[in-house]
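Let us practice reading a record.
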Amino acid sequence: MAANSGRPMNYPTLLGVYLAVNAIRDAYVLVDGPDCTLYKAHFIHGRHDLNSTLLRSNGRHRVAFTNVCSRGVVKEHDDVIRRQLKTLDGIDDSGLVLVTALPMCSITGVDYGRLLRPSGGRLRKPAIDIPPDSLVGDWLDGYAQTLNSLARGLGVAQGSRRSGCAAVVGYFMDRNEGDHAANLVEIRRLLGALGLKTASIWLEGRNAADLKKASQAEVIVSLPYGRAAARRLAQTTGARLVEAELPFGIPKTLGFLRAVAEATGRSAQAEDFIDQELSRLMPRLQKIVPHLFLHRRMAFMGDPYLADGFLDIAEDLGVSVAGTIVRGRRAHGGVREDGVVLYEPFTQSEEVSRLLQSSLDLFVSSWHEQDGLSTAAATLEFGFPSYRQHALYERPFLGFNGFLAFVDRMAGELSACRRWRGSIE
């Protein structure tokens, strides 16, 4: 096997843009490029997200394209873009129009922001450009740049801050299913325990107008998927900025609470709440941890911020982690490198094969069949994309309740694997 054969285990920037559009109920995006731009929506609609509305049977998809090919891109096509923008603006349920481009179109120097400015008087809805030259990197960069463009162009006002109000910026809502709905409830519960009301979460599956409620926040809580957007909003509104960890696993949840509490003078409330929650959680783990988790060996594949939280969870459960495959650039950071950490490795690399063919009890991974990966271990599908696993009810993975739910899912896979192996021995 070649040392670096196959393709890098990462996703393109445009997919991150589409995930952001998918998480704003009334947003539409126009991509300057050929029709292949539409097909990237198939990664999400009906496969990863059963509730996605990116594509529609009436043809009014929330992803549109100019259909400019390699020959047409060298010609001036501003009128084509303006017509498409006006069409999207005229759709009754559109509340926000975004525009960006594939690299093959952006290299000609089209200024998409300039095209929007003269249209301001003719467009009824907010229209924002996502500068194509900002779409470098991977899917996580694409999501973050979309949030940053929203923070720049949505018109979040200054001067309407309310005492005891918070906004969360940088939540990675990759689908409109029960797992993320429950995460949003859990985030609000965590902040509510500190006496803070959550005005807005970027993003949370609501309309674009709801994002402007971030102007009410006296504190903006920044999560890793949208750091730049959070900084921009804090500068615009004058709100206090708190950079917190993604609350995946107990240590990160404690860090999230304590960071917000320290910045808002609510440390005593945070510690009382933490004591209550740990007293509720720990007894539930006393029997299951030594029975199913202690000394087990696992591996993880997913985005860097979930990967780092998983390492904490594994440590708390007495699990050893054989290795971590990160679907993201090393520049994102987020993963402590105290073991084997592979950043966007090639699908058929020797390192990946060696990891997956080692003695594993459980492989926690996003969907990977197309990568040609195989392992004899039990597999728990988790993260983006998840094509075989969906959340039909409110089942979080963030916060204290999310920790219990995630441990419960892992326990189910380990138990099923144990029963199956026992039946053939």
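A brief commentary: Residues 285 and 404 are 9 Å apart (CA to CA).
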